[in-house]
Amino acid sequence: MREHFLTLSFRLPKHQEESLPELLTPWPVLGCEVREVNAEVEVTVFLQNQARALLPQLKGALKSFGALDLAEGTQPDLDWIGEYRQLARPFRVGHRFWIDPHPDTPTPPPAGCIHLLIEPRQAFGTGSHESTQLMLLLLEDRPPVGARVLDVGTGSGVLALAARALGARWVLGFDVDADAVFVACETAHLHPQWPVALFAGPSRALAPRPAFDLILANMLVEQFVPLLPRLRRLVHPGGTLFLSGLLVSQKEAVAGELAASGFALVGEKQLGEWAAVVASPR
């Protein structure tokens, strides 16, 4: 029998949303779904079925916090990735890339497009998120023809493959998540015309010498900032660093971190609230 989760739905004034994670931290919450509706947010909190005895206390805490219209419910444990795969459709990024989520039944790309078969999996980088699209657009703007490329936190491997397809001489992708690298290897096998090298492990597994003309890092700010000094040692003096995964509001802080690590900001791109930056070693 398929497991069911408990749900607790309620409304909150929009200004309370930012403080909600702190309130929920002590409770065994699996996740939240938040939707903005005018001056309020509608929230659904998901809990394991075993947490039913805690619901009265959680509801009391939420009422004190200002929650309105509290309602209990259940949610079947769906295969969310499977559901997404059924609904996913191929899409174009920029002028050069055609992202196809169905490798078993591929859709022919428009003329002149690079056909990337990226099945939705648990590894980051299906091409649908703005941060990944920004990196693809930067690669399109600055094709790495003949370059040696390092893809930090490769996830699905989509950026490594894109760089190779655009003419990179050699591409190495790595991730600390071994499951992600397994996915990247499976994705790479679908594209034998663009061979890439992959490994599971940290950046310190690489010799600290300037071996790369281009370094790609599509990850959260708190993940890539500690890596910047090491990336500075890995990039060639005339090379380039592409960073994505930051919000527009974080650009100034990231520029400061880049400067402190020996990089100069030389370009940027934005999609909605997301940004990507281009930096060169000073």
Automatic annotation (TrEMBL):
Kindly indicate whether the keyword Cytoplasm belongs to this entry.
Answer: yes
Gene Ontology terms, MF aspect: protein methyltransferase activity
Fetch the Pfam families from UniProt: PrmA
BP-aspect Gene Ontology terms:
methylation
The keyword DNA repair belongs to this UniProt entry's keyword annotation: no
The UniProt keyword set, sorted, is: Cytoplasm, Methyltransferase, S-adenosyl-L-methionine, Transferase
Q: May I ask which residue range the UniProt record assigns to the signal sequence?
A: none
Give the record's family classification.
Answer: Belongs to the methyltransferase superfamily. PrmA family.
- This chain belongs to the protein called Ribosomal protein L11 methyltransferase
Species of origin reads Thermoanaerobaculum aquaticum
